[in-house]
Protein: NAD(P)/FAD-dependent oxidoreductase
Amino acid sequence: MQDSTARQNPSVAVIGAGMTGILMAIKLREAGITDITILEKADKLGGTWRENTYPGVACDVPAHMYTYSFRGNPEWSHRFARGAEIQQYFQQVADEQGVTGQVRFNEAVESCHYVDGKWQLGTSKGTQLEVDFVVSATGILHHPAYPDIEGLDSFKGDMWHTARWNHDVDLAGKRVGIIGTGSTACQAIGEIGHTAGHLTVFQRTPQWIIRVADKSYSEADKARLRGRQDKLAAISRRYAFVLRNTFSKAVTGSKLQHAYMSWTAKRNLRKSVRDPELRKKLTPDYPVGCKRLIINNTFYDAVQRDNVTVETTAIERICDAGVVTSDGVTHELDVLILATGFHPFNFMRPMDLRGRNGQTIDEAWSKKVQAYRSLCLPGFPNFFLMLGPNTPIGNYSVIAMSEVQASYMLKLIDLWRRGDLPVVEATEQAKQRFNAYLREGMKNTVWVGGCQSWYLDADGDPAMWPYSWQQWEKELQQPELDDFVRVAPEEAEPLRPAA
Ligand code: N01
Structure:
């Protein structure tokens, strides 16, 4: 066991300097932990907001709720903040809090092994690091999913994924195709529809969309909020209250709220799209909220423009000239945009992560990607996975989720610092119990409503939190000590052979 001085100020490596990594750096320091190393693979912080720069990129959670609770932002331009200003906000908070200077940029963690009670990290710069704790703050949706369509690489025009936007190509007047109609595509289509010569939207599955007025904040609005963290916090609480009592309830079992949400989405489609043929194409056949509900005010208008076509015939293959659909038509294109989503179950991978006894993360997750309370992995002591499996609560703010997880994690680290836990490691039984509890809750949710979405794992189980936000917050208030390893295997008495 380590001596108490080392326990007082454990060394911590934070992997990733996105929204969660910045938060962790701040919270660890507040807890009196100063030996913190933040490793970031890119040359800038910001994570998802650094990587997604497609036209129309914005947050579909109200901006005043999409902030750290300790640092409201009076400068938001709109109710739904644009990607660039969100990136600027994180940069500003990181600068103000002295986090930016602590980040080791352009240094990806390639290996992370638990050896003799410490984590040994190897980075892309060839440096080695030994720490007591590792916090993986690598985010959920950061590995673009490229569609498995025959001939994808044969396309001779320009082609890119929305998370790797090519700003060198001007779309004005071009024949553009976009595959996908998820949240990203809907935002991008709203913008590209105005610039492209012709835009073909290849839709495999229609989506339910809700319109929420996106008011802009005037200079006077902003001035009233400057220096008023109390007012900003109150606005954030109001939005949180509304989301918790409408959307979050609707997806986790409240029939009344679900009926209201369904009515709103169906009405939006009916009122927004005049042509019955097009409306039919855009009408999903699964319950509202089964796929992540899209909050968008521009998509329906864009697809009714003369220069935009919604193509619902299945894509057969891609050729050098464009997209060939199963009716034999070749849709000739200059640019093909892949708005085909992400691999949500990669988390910290492809990092070579090995826990106790050299067990790899691929071995640990060979049957299922699961964690205890989304954060702890049995066999991986003193390792935390922020925003891990079953974190998301529908369209709720991931910042709020991260803050609750951060506070829970610090309580666990504190137990270790006081010597009450030999290591912070959930037991396998606790993980199984927790996941059985999640499975039970899933039965009431709308995510098992028969649609295909990124929420579902390989077995078709949603990797979401199936209960209320309040329940989640309550359960992460205090760690339950019995769910954690009480004697680290290396400290246990050696087993004596039976006489
Ligand atoms: O990805 P998606 P996204 N052939 O997986 C289609 C967050 N986000 O990037 O529905 C044809 O939702 C696929 O079709 P189908 C938010 O959490 C947040 O749009 O599977 N089509 C679908 O239409 C969101 O939920 C904000 O049939 C193919 C699309 O590609 C998450 O990111 C903004 C295909 C993928 O949709 C992911 O959204 C934007 C194929 N082979 C995004 N493969 C905020 O505002 C895939 N598709 C916070």
